[in-house]
Amino acid sequence: MFFLKRKYRFFGFISILFLCIGLTYKYFQTDTFYMIKLGDFIYHNGIDFLDHYCWVTRLPYTYPHWLYDLFVYLVYSRFNYYGIYVSTIITFIFLIFAIYYVNLKLNKNEFFSIIVSIICIFRLSMFAVARAQLISLICFVLEFYFIYRIIETGKKRYSVSIFFLCILIANVHATVWPFFFILFLPFFAEHIISLVGRKYFQLSSYFKLKIEEIPHIKMLFFTFFISLFLGIFSPSKICYTYIFKVMMGNSQKLLSEHLPLTVIEHPFFLVSILILLIVLIFTDTKIYLRELFMICGITFMCLTSVRHLSFFYSIVVIIIGVICVRCLNDKGDVTFDTLGRMLLGKKVIYCILLLLIGIFSYFQFFTHSKEEFILKKDYPVGAVQYIKNNLDYQNLKIYNGYDYGSYLLFNDIPVFIDARCDLYLKEFNGMNYSIFDKMENMPRNYEKEFKKMGVTHVLVKKKEILFLILSKDSHYKVLYNDKYFTLFERVN
């Protein structure tokens, strides 16, 4: 049995390592560019809470993930683009190993933990990019585990670990800091309901709910309460207000990652929910109320914003796995264990599976290795070269779109807007208008706004409406043109 466990662990380790390397994308997202530049500024000048890259006005800036910006810059300054690529792979591996470890501890089923972890690799690979989100996901997975360890053991060291994670998120990714406390709430809710409402839940057996008093609830509440004050250990000091200000702004309806989830475009999300419903409806397996609250809460978050899918695939999938293993144990079903022994207990099949995973990972890695770090269809590579070679670019007022502004910023070209959405909302920038409003209405009022702001040049994608409009306007001269972008000069 011990030898079989070692084989399971080795298979899990190699599978996670190979698949994470193979499935990590090489190309950069827009956030990576401004993070490098901000990290450069922080390293040489510290944090001054001002923006230095937007030409509209000198806006206040909160640096919500300053520590990750600094980390990305230090990696880039020493190892260039490849360093960021490798660091992303390593971070992704850490995330999946954290999920695998938590699965092992909560499921106590070696083979099922490997399966769940591999599923998570494929679903979370879309988030395997150089962004602070990867670090925060690791913290949330570990926090989820430490909460369970507190209610099981009541040991203080798990509270201390949660304090450390809380401070880390406040500095690495302050924008998601409030979610840190959401993970506590289902445990408190179940405990309160078990204390004051037990007699009102006579139908709990019908609904297959398990409601119990949470062990060591005082230690858990103490951990929660102390963590509430740890947001002050961040120079940005925005942990308590950021999420509410963003929700009041209009970026929610303009940015794709903030839009509601379209279920049909994410079939695994629907499949996961269906698997859970099938287990609960057609078996005698019960679900703890805290698990139900956690699943429903994160599912609702996903339906309101597609960016929360990362929480679903890293937290909810673990919970569903725990429920599925509980179902197998309740039924005394050893089919899954038998399948595991059949696949990983026989040397030939074991070696074949490892070989197949290795081949698949190699071809995925080979495919991604041919990608460029900077995709010319997404970022104005040629236009930036032209601007820096032919224009007094540091004194220009270029109007640009949101998705590629960070690439201009990265090249020391002042921007109209970039991917730091909070910077351009009136709730943050101290002005009485949102720059997102101006961007949204620009095709209708472009000449009036350009004249008012003193715009000298316009850089647009060819698929933008503004490109079609300016192409027909004699007051705008084409300076640079390629397959994806066009640079116009505004002629007085």
Task: Give an overview of the whole structure.
- The protein has 492 residues and is mainly alpha-helical.
- It has 2 domains: 2-369, no CATH class; 381-490, no CATH class.
- The protein has 20 helices and 6 strands.
- It has helices at 2-23, 30-45, 66-107, 110-124, 132-153, 156-172, 179-182, 185-196, 217-227, 242-248, 267-282, 289-304, 309-331, 335-344, 347-369, 381-390, 405-410, 426-429, 435-453, 465-471; strands at residues 209-210, 287-288, 398-399, 457-461, 476-481, 485-490.
- It has a 4-stranded mixed β-sheet with strand order 3-4-6-5. Strands 1-2 form a two-stranded parallel ribbon.
- A hairpin with a 3-residue loop joins strand 5 (476-481) and strand 6 (485-490).
- The longest helix is centred in the N-terminal third of the chain and has 42 residues, at 66-107.
- It starts with a helix and ends with a strand.
- The relative contact order is 0.12.
- The mean pLDDT is 89.
In short:
With 492 residues, this protein is mostly helical. The chain is built from 20 helices and 6 strands. The relative contact order is 0.12.
Q: Which labels suit this protein?
A:
single chain, 492 residues, mainly alpha, four-stranded mixed sheet, two-stranded parallel sheet, 61% helix
Layout of secondary structure:
Elements: H1 2-23, H2 30-45, H3 66-107, H4 110-124, H5 132-153, H6 156-172, H7 179-182, H8 185-196, E1 209-210, H9 217-227, H10 242-248, H11 267-282, E2 287-288, H12 289-304, H13 309-331, H14 335-344, H15 347-369, H16 381-390, E3 398-399, H17 405-410, H18 426-429, H19 435-453, E4 457-461, H20 465-471, E5 476-481, E6 485-490
Parallel strand pairs: 1-2, 3-4
Antiparallel strand pairs: 4-6, 5-6
